[in-house]
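Box 3.1 A note on notation
Throughout this textbook, protein chains are presented in two layers. The first layer is the amino acid sequence; the second is a token string describing backbone geometry. Keep the layers aligned when reading.
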Amino acid sequence: MRFLVVILLLISTTVVMAQGKELHDSACLQCHSSLTGGKPNSFYSRAERQVTSLADLQKRVKGCAVAADVDWTDQQRNMVVQYLADSFYKF
């Protein structure tokens, strides 16, 4: 039973990460690319980044969603936050 729970959690996490990446890439890459000279993911590793905690990231994603004029649900926004936290920020 415990093994099944672990497998289900891994599948769930993989799905969330994939959906978060898809949402991020479709809504965020164009703007980030224009801000970083064509290197959108470098936006997350720059020395002067202001996002230093999960709470900061949640606020930033919420603000960027408004700026990008995307109508994400709370669940979708959380998927993007999880994707960014796991892939780049490593909180």
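The chain has a mean pLDDT of 87. The chain has one domain: 2-89.
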